[in-house]
Amino acid sequence: MIYRLSFRRRIWMAFMLIVVLAVTAAGWLSYRIAADVVEKNAYRFSQTTLSKTSQVLDEKLNRIMSSVYSMMVNTAYRRALGFDSNFTEVENYYTHLSALQATFVQTRLYEPIIHTILVATPEGDYYQTSQSRLFESSFYDSPLYERIKREQRKLWFEGHDDAFFSGRERVVSFVMEGIPANFTDDIYVVANVKEQALKELVLGQGNGEQGQFLLATRDGTDVLRSDSPLLQELTGDAGFLRSLGQEQGYFDYVSEGKDYLVRYARLKSFDDWTLFSILPKSDLFKQMDSIKWTIIAIISGCVLVSFAFSDMLTRLLLKPLNRLQFLMKKVEMNDLSVRYESEFEDEISQLGYRFNRMLEELGRLFREVQEAEQEKSKSEMKALQAQIDPHFLYNTLNTIYWKSQTKHLADVQDMVLSLSKLFQLGLNKGKELTPLGFELMHVEQYLKIQRQCYEQLFDYEIEIDPGVDQQQPVPKILLQPLAENAILHGFKNRTEGGRIRIRAEQDDRQLRLIVEDNGEGMQLPMQLSAPAEGQPLKGYALYNVQRRLQLQYSGKASLTIDSQKSMFTKITIAIPRGECDDTRE
């Protein structure tokens, strides 16, 4: 059926298909990108919340332990337990108990979250007398004593009823030996913290509407006895049990058809405890619904607008395009005489008029390219012939021969190696362009050879600014003709003291290659032109280089000469960066 439709209708259908696909794909990609961003932010939020809460809890537990340690170095505490060598007098229990009251008060002031403190000794317990001690409950008969004797280390005990003081409030206890074992056994310090105070500390670090926290022991026991059914249910989950004892991580959890993200991190101050945070994914990703519906609305609006305008656009576009298509088919048949005409003045008509100018320009360019290619080939061949002429080879080989006869073998080796490198870099594997570093190396080999041929005639130096990119391409054999011109013409009346200086520098727009000598100089202004038939090639090197630059860079490169008679000659080549009309190999 599609073949029976009109061309305009097929364009309309194609236009609509492209619009729908493009808008849908853009909407879907936008949604995925937004979803990824929201998901990353949500996971980052959950990790930040857990890290902050874990850090605060760690700091609080450390402060509690530090408070107990500070109490244990107190003079009254040491005297009461009888291991301070500075005090030898015997004092009774009640004297020590009275002396310890200030220590207990000071410890609780340093860390107010500590609810009660008990120092259990075989001779009697020390505690803050303002709190009512339940003497029928002995520490040595409690589960706390059994566990610390079994594990022989300082311990944190999960939430339990306080059996040592009246009120029997729910507390979390820190228990450790109260005196080194080499002095006396069975002396312990118990610091009780209200379970509710730790709950408020943990919950206060996160938004209660966003999630809940669970502090669990290595065997899965809830340290703070949460009343939340969700947290109680979580303690039986396989992912929860696997995470116990691990450093940190997260897992997904489903309860009553609702997805949750559970993150966990082991505490640093007491690695038997692991802090869990459970966050509903619906809360984490609640921004996704608004993003999704916004994108759907935008896609729908774009499709409706496309329906309204597509038919009109196809009608307007097809009429001038049909004419232009017809002319293009004639051009495909190599008929460049056709021209576009239209009564419209819209963009397509302007395109047609530009098509006319393009045809005219193509005709002119075809002719110019043919002429330029012929001239360029001739210029390149003449350039190579002009640079590596028989006179240069004769002088070089003759010098090598006489140096070998006079046993200057090191000089012979250097000249042969330089000549080999000169030809290798000049051939450049047949490539038109060569890296700047290779071009500078090529002219350096040439100067090395010439300095051996014309001893004491000249010295040279090659400078490269630090910012110059030596990998940028330049026409090969560009600098050697200029160096040769300086030697043959600039130093023709010298026997010594010549100096050639080659410098490479660049800025954001162009690369500049400068060849300067202190030779005879030349008369300015100087007209650079090709020699006539039968005329000598003196000065042709400069013309050859200039012509190659014009052909290679379409007139955007330049060669300038600054000279003063009997003083110096300075030739500057400026090459635009990043532009080259010919990159053929």
Automatic annotation (TrEMBL):
It comes from the Bacteria. It is a multi-pass membrane protein. SUPFAM superfamilies: ATPase domain of HSP90 chaperone/DNA topoisomerase II/histidine kinase (SSF55874), HAMP domain-like (SSF158472). This is Two-component system sensor histidine kinase YesM. InterPro entries: Bact_2-comp_sensor_kinase, HAMP_dom, HATPase_C_sf, HATPase_dom, Sig_transdc_His_kin_internal. The keyword Transferase applies. GO terms for molecular function: phosphorelay sensor kinase activity. SMART domains: HAMP. One of its GO terms (cellular component) is plasma membrane. Residues 355-389 form a coiled coil. It holds the Pfam family HATPase_c. Residues 315-367 form the HAMP domain. Gene3D superfamilies: 1.10.287.130, Histidine kinase-like ATPase, C-terminal domain (3.30.565.10), PAS domain (3.30.450.20). It is found in: Cell membrane. PROSITE patterns: HAMP. Keywords: Cell membrane, Coiled coil, Kinase, Membrane, Phosphoprotein, Transferase. The keyword Kinase applies.
